Amino acid sequence: IGINQWVHIGCILPAYTKTLNQPPYILHNIREIVKRCQKKYKCDICSKMGASIQCYENDCHTYFHCQCIEIYYSKFNRDILEKLNVINGLLPNLTTLCSKHNKIKIKNELNDTNQYEINNDRNYSKLKSINLSSTIYADLSNSIIEFSLSNIQLCIGSLQIKSFGNYDYLLDNDTNLNIYPNKYHATRLFWSTKNARQKTLYHLYIDVEQTYHNEKSNHQTIEYP
């Protein structure tokens, strides 16, 4: 967003939930949105400024940092998270439920009532889902810059992720618990196994061999009269 100034797409995206409609998504006025979050929105968990995630309740004005709300919900039982429709602390539209309103929701779920449905037209607008795999554009200085997930690279110390890969090969009925990203590529600088005094660059590639259609058991012939 400026010289040596960066912002995580995942951190700033929730601040655009009311303006994101159909993909590809375009983020306008990023600098202004970042400044607004830094000066106006305080996290309800850590009490620090810079929060971007708002409670889904229309009349609730509590905000959270991405990491804070994710850690908060990581302590919840998986069954409760499924009932709340919360993944990594977020609802499908990148808002969340604060501690007050998730307790109300959980209580009503346990009582088997429908008085506090998230999709209740009286209290809420329809819960839209934001597709995070879509292309995202950033509007900086009246110019559009594209952020395609296939082109994003990540550097963490000596670890460099060249390609995050994809999960396009997964099937709806796939029961395999060992899921790996296809076309994943990462490198890391580490000590050599041949010379302890030297460092070498190690590469990790993941290419998933798709054998589903090669197995006869996955095919069947249907005869019509």
Can you describe this structure?
Strand 8 and strand 9 (199-206) form a beta hairpin. The chain has 5 helices and 9 strands. It is globular and about 55 Å long. The longest helix is centred in the middle third of the chain and has 12 residues, at 99-110. It has 2 domains: 1-151, no CATH class; 153-218, Double Stranded RNA Binding Domain. The protein has 225 residues and is an alpha+beta fold. One of its GO terms (cellular component) is nucleus. It comes from Adineta steineri. This is PHD-type domain-containing protein.
Structure at a glance:
This protein has about 220 residues and is an alpha+beta fold. Helix content is about 20%, strand content about 20%. It folds into 2 domains: about 1-150, no CATH class; about 155-220, Double Stranded RNA Binding Domain, CATH 3.30.160.
Dominant shape? globular
Largest sheet: 4 strands, antiparallel
* Beta-strand segment tally: 9
Find the structural class using helix and strand composition.
alpha+beta
Roughly how many Å is the radius of gyration? 22 Å
Percent of sequence in beta strands: 15-25%
- Taking pLDDT < 50 over at least 5 consecutive residues as the criterion, the unreliable ranges are 115-126
N→C terminal distance: 65 Å
